[in-house]
Amino acid sequence: MRPTYSNIDENLANFERFKGDISDARNMGIGLIRFLRHMEIKVLIVEDNPITAQDLEEILAENGIVVVGIARSANQAINKARDLQPDILIMDIKLDGEKDGISAVEDIYKTDYYPVIYLTANTDREHVEKAYATSPAAFLSKPFDHKDLIHAIELAFVNHYKKIFNSTELPGMNKCIFLKNGEKYEKIAIDEIQLVRADGSYSTVVTKGQSYSIALNLQGLSDKVKNPLFFRLHRSYIVNLNCLTGFDNQYVYIGKTSIPYSKNYREDLMRFLNRL
């Protein structure tokens, strides 16, 4: 079942208050924002009007947000969400075809979860209540203010990862990956990964009982496994914060294994270790 979050409804109940409190929300999440500074916000736009879709793409690009794709219909949205794995969905409610944007979100949520920001020119109560039933991160009426859209995306992204960090659980179905071991692929739970070590253009993924060499560099792996509990503390190491058993002025420890951390990452590392 898709996870639900209690404070989303409160944000939706009064979007004007949400905009007014944006600076406070940013201050609350400033440590997390710094922690996730290496992560781009990747957005899938679902909009059947080509001009509006292009305008959205330009607005996001101007603000450093990556548009991974544009879908024109509900079916395209479902397929592209599965294939592109965005951070955020920007979903127009009225789409060409039999399914509207809300139905597309309902279908996407059967297997995955991404915070959704609805855009609509139709604000009648029936559509609003149907949209709210999917617990969106925000609901914006057309024409919308550009700053409101960027604020909504930023807050949706930060709140999403704050909830993951606080619960130490991955939402939706994305809790496992398949890693090659010899001639076969083995299913590995994300939370079983203790650390990842760079090895040139390869990476070594270490679990409690096994190591896996994969043909992907550390940055590439970091982009694919988006979990704020996986912390890059050195150019050659990513660690699972939940697996740490100790630390000192130079190393963190997972059992008897010592992993060095760089001075550049010390401040953020100490901040999050104090919260565990």
List the keywords.
11 helices; alpha/beta; OB fold (Dihydrolipoamide Acetyltransferase, E2P); five-stranded parallel β-sheet; 276 residues; 2 domains
What do these coordinates show?
There is one protein chain. The protein is an alpha/beta fold and 276 residues long. The chain folds into two domains: 6-167, 3-Layer(aba) Sandwich (Rossmann fold), CATH 3.40.50.2300; 176-273, OB fold (Dihydrolipoamide Acetyltransferase, E2P). It is 39% helix and 26% strand. The longest helix is centred in the middle third of the chain and has 22 residues, at 146-167. It is elongated, with a radius of gyration of 20 Å.
